[in-house]
């Protein structure tokens, strides 16, 4: 991945996934972690949709 990464599409199904995602966020702090439903919504609407309803809370 590069500094141009804007989103990290992920499924968090275990504490291990959370740790991996937190590590990616440390590496790419500009990238927003979102559920795969965000990507599906973008494809179905043929545009970039708001990630607000699809964000993954790592707190």
Major sheet: arrangement of strands: 1-2
Order of SSEs: EHEH
**What proportion of the residues is helical, as a percent range?**
25-40%
Mean pLDDT: 94
Number of domains as seen in the coordinates: 1
From the alpha carbons, calculate the radius of gyration and give it in angstroms: 12 Å
**E-strand count:** 2
Largest sheet: 2 strands, parallel
Strand content: 5-15%
Tally of alpha and pi helices: 2
N- to C-terminal separation?
24 Å
Low-confidence residue ranges: none
Give the overall form.
globular
Global structural class: alpha+beta
Task: Explain how this protein is built.
With 59 residues, the protein is of the alpha+beta class. It has one domain. The protein is built from 2 helices and 2 strands. Strands 1-2 form a two-stranded parallel ribbon. The model has no long low-confidence stretch (mean pLDDT 94).
Keywords:
59 residues; alpha+beta; two-stranded parallel sheet; 2 helices; 2 strands; 39% helix; 10% strand; globular; BRCT_dom_sf; BRCT_dom; CHD1L protein
């Amino acid at each position: 991945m590069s500094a141009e990464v804007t989103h990290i599409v992920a499924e968090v199904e275990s504490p291990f996934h959370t740790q991996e995602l937190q590590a990616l966020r440390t590496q790419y702090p500009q990238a927003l972690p979102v559920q795969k439903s965000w990507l599906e919504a973008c494809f179905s609407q043929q545009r970039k949709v708001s990630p607000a309803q699809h964000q993954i809370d790592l707190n």
